[in-house]
Amino acid sequence: MTPLLVYDGDCGFCTRCVRFAERRVHTRARAIPWQAADLDALGVTRERAEHEVLWLAGGRVLGGALAVAELLVDAGPPWRALGRVIRSRPVRPLAAAVYRLVARNRHRMPGGTPACALPPAERPAAKGRD
User: Fold this and answer.
1) Per the structure, how many domains does the chain have?
2) Which domain, by its residues, includes 102?
3) Positions of the region Disordered (predicted)?
């Protein structure tokens, strides 16, 4: 099964990061916005998909910094080494804290938009979903 990266397609920063990964990281994963994914079929709740980027592979679902780490490991050299460092026990808590900090401030990041700061249900693209 091809790994799947599920991200927030309403967030400009998230979309920009995924586009960077598609151009530069060269992973086997297929990226899909959670808004276009069949979350039930994937075994993922909407709440979790709204909260963090997800990596689905081999029957496992990893989120946040661990999802990013797995994407990097999957990409092979030179990215693999960075992914392994991120998921290592000593670095994992720091990586999770940095991920949460970035996630909370994604509307301030390059490519971020004011919509990134809104709860998912209040974003302009949310109209017509549900």
Assistant:
1) 1
2) 4-126
3) 111-130
